[in-house]
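JOB MANIFEST
job_type = single_chain_structure
chain_count = 1
residues = 233
[input]
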Amino acid sequence: MNNKLQLAELERIFQTEQAQELLKAGVTLRDPARFDLRGRLKHGQDVVIDVNVVIEGEVELGDNVEIGANCVIKNAKIGANTKIAPFSHFEGCEVGENNQIGPYARLRPQAKLADEVHIGNFVEVKNATIGNGTKANHLTYIGDAEIGSKTNFGAGTIIANYDGVNKHKTIIGDEVRIGSNCVLVAPVTLGNKVTTGAGSAITRNCEDGKLVLARSRQTVIEGWVRPEKGDKK
């Protein structure tokens, strides 16, 4: 080997051989020429991997796992029957069975998802445990948190875990409903079956079963005239 071209050619030969071994073992690769294994893959039965997927480090895939196109999976364990939509990125995480993840989801180190969890588009999870049946389907950040079962995050929810110096933990119980566009300022604890109103900034703990509102009242200005282009000042 004398140059980068030869190195790339050898790498492609190696990747082709790995893809062929996976195909022989029962893994479905939608296009073996567009798949990279840069580590070790342990897999169950009937795994399906779409094009341009990159597997890095130590990865374990359970039975019937499906990985959509253009995903990166690094040092992750993914349970049976989990479906991963395209353009998702996993690193250093554990995912239970029957999860629905992506597209464009990001699971960072120490993310631990139980079974039947939904992590949707543009949702990021870092150093957090999430219980059975919890859903965060849109535009959410969950960091340094412990989340119970059957909790629902409205779109635009942010867990504000960093105060500029230290990271703080958020604890959310079972069957909690977080309204859209809420900010949970850590450290904070929400008990079971708490509901937060949309647009609230939650800064204090809340006991089980309470409704929490933390936002300004709407004001309607009567007689106001909207300025238009061409109006004289």
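[summary]
The helical segments are 4-24.
The longest helix spans residues 4-24.
exit_status = 0
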